[in-house]
UniProtKB/TrEMBL annotation:
<feature type="transmembrane region" description="Helical">
    <location>
        <begin position="163"/>
        <end position="182"/>
    </location>
</feature>
<keyword id="KW-0812">Transmembrane</keyword>
<protein>
    <submittedName>
        <fullName>Energy-coupling factor transport system substrate-specific component</fullName>
    </submittedName>
</protein>
<keyword id="KW-0472">Membrane</keyword>
<dbReference type="Pfam" id="PF09819">
    <property type="entry name" value="ABC_cobalt"/>
</dbReference>
<keyword id="KW-1133">Transmembrane helix</keyword>
<dbReference type="InterPro" id="IPR017195">
    <property type="entry name" value="ABC_thiamin-permease_prd"/>
</dbReference>
<feature type="transmembrane region" description="Helical">
    <location>
        <begin position="131"/>
        <end position="151"/>
    </location>
</feature>
<feature type="transmembrane region" description="Helical">
    <location>
        <begin position="52"/>
        <end position="74"/>
    </location>
</feature>
<feature type="transmembrane region" description="Helical">
    <location>
        <begin position="20"/>
        <end position="40"/>
    </location>
</feature>
<feature type="transmembrane region" description="Helical">
    <location>
        <begin position="81"/>
        <end position="98"/>
    </location>
</feature>
<feature type="transmembrane region" description="Helical">
    <location>
        <begin position="104"/>
        <end position="124"/>
    </location>
</feature>
């Protein structure tokens, strides 16, 4: 009788190691989303004006800055992918000239950690829509906490809490659902054939 063996330590280790193609694709994703970040930041002035009567509503717009981490994590599926993509995308937007300056690097790190923690919680083994939504939710919460400290320090506690609620909702929809749909769409085109995301049904 043939004994079925599980993954060897070497196989498991290779599963988590970054390949050259991982670095290249993660970088391309980050640069592309970094341009989106720049455009998204440019539109924030209008959002701030619209939400002036109740500033916490601006949190509904914040999910656009969280896309890189979740998208990168879903496609690359390696430890550190969410942080790498979110920070690099933030750096690209800063180099282009976002109005928020180099402070976006710290924001990108915090937001990337928020998404990364969820992927790590599932040991980088589950990549379904539920995990994607949780990653977006976590990134949104991390964003809200950091921005309440960095930018909203003078707000009343109620405003800060509501900003967190709206940022979490935005994270789920814009940074969780949309990247999951994008990954699924790319997988169907064959563009992700070099990745597990393009060969499995749980994208």
């Amino acid at each position: 009788m043939t004994e079925t063996k599980g993954p060897t330590p070497a196989t498991s280790r290779r599963r988590y190691e970054w390949r050259v193609v991982d670095i290249v694709v993660a970088s391309v994703i980050s640069v592309a989303v970094g341009v989106i970040f720049f455009a998204w930041s440019a539109g924030y002035s209008g959002i701030a004006a619209v939400t002036a009567a109740y500033p916490p509503l601006a949190g509904l717009y914040s999910g656009g800055w969280l896309i890189a981490g979740v998208l990168g994590g879903l496609i690359i599926r390696k430890p550190g992918a969410a942080i790498y993509c979110e920070v690099l995308a933030a750096a690209v937007s800063a180099l282009i000239g976002t109005q928020f300056g180099m402070a976006v690097l710290l924001s990108g790190l915090v937001q990337g950690i928020g998404a990364e923690l969820v992927f790590a919680l599932f040991l980088y083994r589950r990549w379904n829509i539920g995990v994607a939504l949780l990653a977006g939710l976590s990134a949104g919460i991390f964003l809200a906490v950091s921005e309440n400290i960095m930018y909203n320090v003078e707000w009343a506690l109620e405003f800060k809490l509501m900003y967190g609620v709206f940022a979490a909702i935005s994270g789920v929809v814009l940074a969780g659902l949309l990247p999951w749909l994008a990954t699924r769409g790319l997988a169907k085109t064959g563009a992700l054939s070099s990745f597990a995301a393009g060969r499995t049904a749980d994208v």
